[in-house]
Amino acid sequence: AQQAQQAQQAQQAKQEPHRTRMGAEETSEALQNNHKLLDQFAGPVKSYDLLETFPHNSSLFTQGLVFAGGLLYEGTGIYGKSEVLALDPRTGKAKKRSKILPKSIFGEGLTLVERAGAAAKTLVQVTYNERKAFMYRLDDFSAPAKEFTYETYTGQGWGLAYDPSRHELVVSDGSEYLFFWDPDT
Question: Which segments of the chain does DSSP mark as H helices, in order?
Fold first, then answer.
C-alpha cells in the first residue's frame, strides 16, 4: 500500500509543473501541502509555555525577523508586496518601512549585520528566485543602499543569518547546503 501511495505521489509530481512564482493562492496551497508532508514525519510531542503574544498584521507574508534596538525588523515576501518594516513589537505598528520591491521580486530571508566597532548596521535581504540581495542601512532603509547578485546551488535564497564571530552571512537555498558569504564583498 505504501509503495502504491509513493508511486501515485511521484506521478502527481510529474503532472504538476514547478511553480516559480507564488501568489497568495499558491502560497496557501503550498503551506497546506507542507503541513501534510510534515505530519508524515511527526516526532515526539514537545511542550512549551506561551509567555506573551504581540499584535501582527496577518496580511504580511513573513520571511525574516530580526529583533534589535527594541524594534522588530520584518522582511516580507509575495510578488508585488515584498518590503522591510521596523515594527513596534508592543503595538505591531510600522515605525519605518522600505519601498516595496519591484513586482518581479519575492523577498525572503532577512538578517542584521553588526560589525564590532563599526557605527553602521546593515539589514540584508535575499530573494527567492531572482538571485539578488538588498542591503539597507539600519538608520534609513526607505530604499536599498546596495544591491548584489549571487549564486547558490538551487539558484534560490531562503533563510539568512549572520555569524558575528566570523563576520559571515549564512545563506540557505532550500538544499542540503549552506553558503557563507563575506558581507563586505
Answer: 2-15, 24-39
